[in-house]
Design brief:
The protein contains 29 helices and 20 strands. The structure holds pyridoxal-5'-phosphate. Pyridoxal-5'-phosphate (PLP) binds next to helix 8, helix 24 and helix 25.
Length: about 700
């Protein structure tokens, strides 16, 4: 059982604050933990649960006697309680519904904070930012997912540049999660129905502001050994393991909500992994005597499905023999024979199995892609599911992704915005008018602010490298490659994301001689910081990583390339804020949206990107740089790389190094301002969640 955190009465409220991720997007709350003990805060990895558990009693006692701390504590706690007790918010002020039951939101991953390693990449951060914004707007929602005790992977890079995974098991008692208890006071354990031999899950909860996120953990004694591993890692194992994971997520997740007595008005599926939840909704209705047809009609009318990628590996297809094995007894329960049942998941373009995305698309009245372009790509990709319709009539809409502004804004930038954008800016941050005031920020202040953030990034990277060096865990080569040679004065390009091959992390090395000229320019050097993980089974991704590693260790590139290990939420914060420019060059049309460029732009780090995903609608000619609009057939590596060099040589480098007499690159700062103004409101999670509510939830709430 959880080792209790013992706190003096006067500051007992720190316990609830630590167990609600609300603290993570409120700088004053973060600061409260930090001022309690700076060293312990840092050593805990900015995880207040771990910190409070480990803090010596005398530090807590002296905090109670510290007037300043107590004042700060009272202010933060008052705000926390006020917000948590509030029943109002944007949703209740704008949406009138007869009876408001929550939305059930299902996702295989959630990127909320680096102390909770339940994410692999963009899909997870989208889900995490979604929950935070729903909390801020008062959208009634409960979320369901997995507790992955071994998370995605912790990455280290060998001295020869090959990626390795480090096993690390989450210390459940030091994470901001709590056990959900049953009536008898033990941890709630739920049996996943209709699967034999049975699988059990224990239930945990993360509180995300107002929003509860229930997590299922199969690593409990009552399970057979192979079932204990179902929730061990994200996206691992063979196809049968994957199917069992998805049965637990969709069907087990529905059962967890039932056992908790939570009735939901709608189902929102974040990607196809949890789509079996749809079966459960149908089955429950059929069980009460409703006809299959009526049940499907009702369920469809209240289901929302968001598809996230055109990449085939992102869409699970299960062979029929496995579907028979696991659903043989299930289809009679919803009144279907085998063929009709399997037909629900057939993709006519490739009818070789049960396709989770095809199934979800057909069974949801509200479907969307995650950018304007991805909407169109998805309509083309899935048009054969609706053989009678023209491509533009295919019922897949789009809602462009956005990022949770309070989470992804750098505190120093936030202070600057507090000073210039008026008192209401954070409240109204999805309104473009608010951001017009960015023009009033003095060029010098904005530039110095950014420089300070850049130094913070470089210091962070140096500290990481030093830490590993001291622990003697690495070869000297890794210390060099890991960023110890970074120069704070040089124009710094950032590239960090999953190392999936289509993201083409190595594109900029295509013409190495041309790149070297830019890196080795003595007066106007360029440097590049890379980070990212390849999926453990993706040999191609690992080769790309190794290639970059080898360039980074090659002294003829001037020590201007760094590859920082173990990309996670914390490193993403530092990198998206602290580099000068953010690079993105996936192979079109495979980037559904991309969100890291939004995190950067919002902080005055302009985007240099191919015109795919969100940038196809985000680029306005002044807020960054774009290339690759033409749809070229065949190998486009050469032309795309050349476009990047051209932009760097002709536009970007001269602009960055053109300084006024105070040393401020005023024309560069113009681009920074334009990037903040144009991206912050439109690509905020606030704009996005409001759009989901207005376009989908409001209609779905009315029912069939
Ligand atoms: C935002 C984020 C991503 C998503 O990046 P893309 O631009 O969508 O590729 C991936 N990983 C981390 C850690 C992030 O913070």
């Amino acid at each position: 059982m959880t080792q209790p955190i013992i706190l003096p009465d006067r500051i007992r409220g720190l316990h609830d604050l630590a167990y609600n991720l609300w603290w993570s997007w409120h700088p004053a709350a973060r600061m409260l933990f930090k001022t309690l003990d700076r060293t312990a805060w840092k050593e805990s990895g900015h995880n207040p649960v771990r910190m409070l558990r480990d803090l010596p009693e005398d530090i807590l006692k002296s905090a109670v006697l510290n007037q300043e701390f107590i004042h700060h504590y009272d202010v933060v706690l008052a705000r926390f309680h006020k917000e948590m007790d509030s029943k109002g918010g944007w949703f209740s002020e704008n949406i009138t519904v007869p009876e408001c039951m929550p939305v059930a939101y299902f996702s295989a991953e959630y990127g909320l904070h680096h102390s909770l390693p339940f994410y692999a990449g963009g899909l997870g951060f989208l889900a995490g930012d979604y929950l935070k914004e729903c909390s801020d707007l008062g959208v009634p929602l409960v979320a369901v997912g997995f507790m992955y005790p071994q998370g995605y992977l912790r990455q280290t890079v060998r001295a020869d540049g090959w990626q390795e995974s480090v096993d690390e098991v989450l210390d459940r008692d030091a994470a901001p999660i709590v056990r959900v208890l049953d009536e008898k006071g033990g941890q709630l354990v739920v049996k996943v129905p209709f699967i034999d031999p049975p699988v059990y899950v224990s239930v945990w909860k993360v509180q995300v502001g107002h929003i509860p996120l229930y997590l299922m953990d199969t690593d409990i004694e009552i399970n057979e050994p192979w079932n204990r591993a179902i929730s061990a890692h994200l996206y691992s194992g063979d196809v049968e393991h994957r199917l069992r994971q998805e049965i637990v997520l969709g069907i087990g997740g529905s059962e967890v909500l039932n056992m908790l007595g939570i009735k939901c008005s709608m189902l929102h599926l974040n990607e196809g992994h949890p789509a079996f939840a749809i079966f459960e909704k149908i089955r429950e209705r059929v069980e009460t005597g409703m006809s299959y047809g009526d049940a499907v009609h009702q369920v469809r009318a209240t289901t929302i499905f968001t598809t996230h990628t055109p990449v085939p590996a992102g869409h699970d297809v299960f062979p029929f023999h496995l579907m028979d094995k696991y659903f043989g007894n299930y289809c009679p329960l919803i009144g279907l024979n085998r063929d009709t049942f399997l037909q629900m998941g057939i993709n006519p373009d490739n009818p070789a199995g049960f396709n989770m995305t095809a199934f979800a698309l057909k069974m949801s009245a509200y479907n969307n892609g995650v950018s304007k372009k991805h909407g169109a790509v998805s309509r083309r990709m899935w048009r054969s599911l609706w053989p009678g319709l023209k491509e533009e009539e295919v019922p897949i809409d789009h809602i462009t992704n956005g990022v949770h502004v309070p989470t992804w804004i750098e505190p120093k930038m936030e202070l600057l915005f507090n000073k210039y954008l008026g008192p209401q800016w954070l409240e109204d941050h999805d309104s473009p008018a608010v951001w017009e005031l960015v023009d009033d920020i003095s060029d010098r202040e904005l530039w110095q602010g950014h420089y300070w953030v850049k130094m913070k990034l470089i210091t962070f990277i140096h500290e990481r490298a030093r830490h590993r060096w001291v622990q003697n865990r690495v070869n000297p080569v890794n210390v060099v490659v890991g960023g110890t040679l970074l120069d704070p004065m040089a124009l710094t390009l950032g590239f960090a994301r999953r190392f999936a091959a289509y993201k083409r992390a190595d594109l900029i090395f295509h013409d190495i001689e041309r790149l070297k000229k830019l890196l080795n320019n003595r007066w106007r050097p360029l440097q590049i910081i890379f980070a990212g993980k390849a999926h453990p089974t993706d040999e191609e991704g690992k080769r790309i990583l190794q290639k970059i590693f080898n360039f980074a260790r090659d002294s003829s590139l001037g020590g201007r390339i760094a590859l920082v290990e173990d990309y996670d939420e914390q490193l993403a914060q530092y990198m998206t804020h602290g580099v000068d420019i953010w690079l993105n060059n996936p192979l079109p049309p495979l980037e559904a949206s991309g969100t890291s460029g939004m995190k950067a732009s919002l902080n005055g780090v302009p985007h240099l990107s191919i015109l795919d995903g969100w940038w196809a609608e985000g680029y306005n000619g002044k807020n960054g740089w774009a290339f690759g609009s033409e749809e070229t057939p065949g190998d486009r590596t050469g032309p795309d790389a050349a476009a990047i060099y051209d932009l760097l040589e002709k536009d970007i480098i001269p602009l960055f190094y053109r300084l006024d007499e105070d040393g401020v690159p005023c024309d560069w700062v113009k681009v920074m301002k334009e990037s903040i103004k144009s991206v912050a409101p439109r690509f905020s999670a606030r704009r996005m969640v409001k759009e989901y509510v207005r376009k989908f939830y409001e209609n779905a709430l009315k029912g069939p």
